[in-house]
Amino acid sequence: MERPEGNTTLKVFEDTEIMDQLQDPRLMQMLLKGANNVLDVMLDYKQLMFAASAAMKIVKTKLEILDTEFKMTHNRDPIHSIQTRLKSQASILEKMAKRGIEPTTENMERYVSDLAGVRVICGYVDDIYTIEHLLAEQDDLEILERKDYIVSPKKSGYRSLHLILQVPVFLPGGIRKTKVEVQLRTIGMDFWAALEHEIRYKKNLDNEMLLKRLESCAEVIARTDQEMQSIRTEMEAHENQQKDMELILEKLRRFDVPLP
């Protein structure tokens, strides 16, 4: 269907009027200044997230090295798995809005501590504190904040150890100290947290009875973690006893060697 001629004439007139306005130096200057400001903000945000991503990778690499070194000396892995994530723009803005913080790049860097996140899943509870201790010994890392939800669980039953690390990121323009949130939890804690998040938030759960059952499940998993820890401790004690016996027997065999 052909467009009416009148509408075509009006469209051409409007386009011509816009082009004439763009020839105004003052208007063009305003547009260029506005575009330049927007691009500056975008580039600052890009640089911030690049530093966060780099810091996250540094922490992940350190954890992998610590895990390998521990395995070489103790013949087991304290870390079951490592997960990483960068916070999405929507999540950042939502968090800042809830806290009444102006959404600027400077405020993101200052007030949002979990732009970069590393989740460490361990087999046993004591492994969590072992990894924390090993991270604290790193000369270039600083623990800015520590929240132990294992010793003091949240009301919901949530358990985990949260650390905010300050990580130096070496960039061409100098060192940029960047925050990374590290969450350490057992396999059981992670299992509960994943399903609890899906049930509570995705299903908009507000039934008090069901929430109590979720909390009860968290208690069961905590007791299971303690029992598994106890089993491993007893097994290691038995293995150490056997090694001690083997060492004594070896010394006795050496003592029985005939003299020349």
Give the radius of gyration.
Answer: 29 Å
- In the CATH scheme, what's the topology name of the domain at 24-187? Beta Polymerase, domain 2
What's the rounded overall pLDDT mean?
Answer: 85
How would you describe the shape? flat
Tally of DSSP helical segments: 7
By CATH, the architecture of the domain at 24-187 is named: 2-Layer Sandwich
What is the tally of beta strands?
5
Spatial sequence of strands, sheet with the most strands: 1-2-5-4-3
Strand/helix succession: HHEHHEHEEEHH
CATH superfamily of the domain at 24-187: Beta Polymerase, domain 2
**Proportion of residues in extended strands:** 15-25%
Terminal residue distance: 116 Å
Overview of this structure, please?
The chain is of the alpha+beta class and 260 residues long. It has a domain at 24-187: Beta Polymerase, domain 2 (2-Layer Sandwich). It contains seven helices and five strands. It has helices at residues 5-22, 25-74, 89-98, 105-111, 125-136, 187-202, 208-255; strands at residues 79-86, 116-122, 142-148, 161-171, 174-186. Strands 1-2-5-4-3 form a five-stranded mixed beta sheet.
Properties at a glance:
alpha+beta; Beta Polymerase, domain 2; 5-stranded mixed β-sheet; 5 strands; 62% helix; flat
Short description:
It contains seven helices and five strands; from the N terminus they run ααβααβαβββαα. It has 260 residues and is α+β, with helices and mostly antiparallel strands. It has a domain at 24-187: Beta Polymerase, domain 2, CATH 3.30.460.10.
Topology:
Elements: H1 5-22, H2 25-74, E1 79-86, H3 89-98, H4 105-111, E2 116-122, H5 125-136, E3 142-148, E4 161-171, E5 174-186, H6 187-202, H7 208-255
Parallel strand pairs: 2-5
Antiparallel strand pairs: 1-2, 3-4, 4-5
Helix pairs in contact: 6-7
